[in-house]
Amino acid sequence: MVKILIVDDHAIVREGLKQIVADTSGLAVTGEASSEQETLEILHKHDFDVVLLDIAMTGRGGLEVLKQIKQEKPELPVLILSMYPEEQYAVRALKMGAAGYLTKVSAPDELIKAIKKIATGRKYVSSSLAEKLAFNLEVDTEKPLHEYLSNREFQVMCLIASGKTVKDIAEKLSLSVNTVSTYRFRILDKMRMKTNSELTHYALKNRLVL
Asked: What is the Cβ-side half-sphere exposure of residue 27, based on CA atoms within 13 angstroms?
């Protein structure tokens, strides 16, 4: 039996996860926690095979909780559950010791698959995240970073660098604001940057915009 600890500060989310697990033989939720302190206390008292951890915990946040868990029990597999897209936190979470990263919009059967996989000591990543990780391994440091952008990503980057807002870009390219925002996250990740000002500086320096 795979014993699972659910760490999430929303009771309704914990109940939903428990229901999903309850429908699967061989898995059992044997502990719940809603804060970092409660998580560490229950880990000191009980043993678990898998931890399901919400990244958006109130207080110090899920990544800090992950850090504490890995310090206390480095071999305990932790599956990060998040409302945030993979582009924002997945790689960072995996580097910090998470055994997997799954968005909360994923299907229940994918969650079960992920739990079973990390319980055996393996890592779990979605197909889209696997592609992203492969890209990071293939990056040639001698090649300008903007050359790794797709044509559309390059177009959006240049518009951002020229001072256009996400709304302006969406209207210009006949895309939704959400789609443009997703492109922006991808661009910043591929360019290893965090802000629009960094993109603008890079674009000006490399004469990509006037």
From this structure: 25
**Size (the chain), residues:** 210
* Fold adopted by 139-205: Arc Repressor Mutant, subunit A (1.10.10)
Residues 23/64, Cβ–Cβ less than 8 Å: no
Q: Give the lowest-confidence range in 41-45, 78-82, 115-119, 205-209.
A: 205-209
Contact 28, 3 (CB under 8 A): yes
Mean pLDDT computed over every residue of the chain? 88
What lies within 8 Å, CB to CB, of 111 at 6+ separation is 17, 20, 81, 102
Phi-psi region of 59 (alpha: psi -120 to 50; beta: other; left: phi over 0): left
Q: What pLDDT score does 139 carry?
A: 57
pTM for this entry? 0.64
Residues 6+ apart with CB under 8 A from 21: 4, 27, 28, 29, 112, 115
Cα(93)–Cα(99) distance, rounded to whole angstroms?
9
- The single residue listed with the structure tokens 């889209």 is 128
Q: How far is CA 176 from CA 166, 190, 199, in A?
A: 9, 21, 21
> CA 85 to CA 193: how far, in whole Å?
17
| Other CB atoms within 10 Å distance of the CB of residue 127 | 7
Q: How far apart are CA 76 and CA 83, in angstroms?
A: 23
What CATH number should be reported for the domain whose range is 2-126? Answer: 3.40.50.2300
